[in-house]
Amino acid sequence: METITLKIKPQRNVWADVEIFANSALFAPDYDPKVIEVYDDKGLLWGLAHKEHFYQSSRSPFHQSEYIAWYFDEELGLFLQGKVPLINRLGLMALGQTIVPDLSSITDPYWKN
C-alpha cells in the first residue's frame, strides 16, 4: 500500500503567484499533474491528489468568490477573475480539456455580480 503525504496549504499568496507565473510556458499536452488544488479569495476550495484523494473546504452558500486559482503540482495554471482568464496555461493539455471544457461551468456558481 502506497503512503501519500500532502502538505495542504489552506491559504496561498495567489496575487504573488499571478506575477510569478504570468509569463510561464503552457503545460505540455501530455502533462498529468499529481495534485490539483483550487483556491479562491477565502483559501482552499478543493484538491485532488493522485486522482483518488479528494479534499475540500466548506463555504457559505452565499459566498461569491473574487477569483478562482487552479494549481497543478504547486504551479498556477489557471487564474480567473470574474469570468476573465488572466492566466491560462492549460493550452492543449489533455486534462485541461476534460476539467475545463467550458469556463462558465466552473465559474458561474462562484462569481460576484
Low-pLDDT runs: 103-113
Write the element-wise H/E pattern from the N-terminal end onward.
HEEEEEEHH
Share in helix = 10-25%
Number of helices: 3
Number of strands: 6
Secondary structure class reads alpha+beta
β-strand percent reads 25-35%
Shape: globular
Structural Rg: 14 Å
The neighbouring-strand order within the major sheet is 3-2-1-4-5-6
Write up what this structure looks like.
The protein has 113 residues and is an alpha+beta fold. It has one domain. The chain is 17% helix and 31% strand. The protein has helices at 14-21, 94-99, 103-107; strands at 35-40, 43-49, 53-56, 67-72, 75-81, 84-88. A six-stranded antiparallel β-sheet has the order 3-2-1-4-5-6, with helices on one face.
Summarize the structure.
The chain has 113 residues and is of the alpha+beta class.
Compile the SSE list and pairings:
Layout: H1 14-21, E1 35-40, E2 43-49, E3 53-56, E4 67-72, E5 75-81, E6 84-88, H2 94-99, H3 103-107
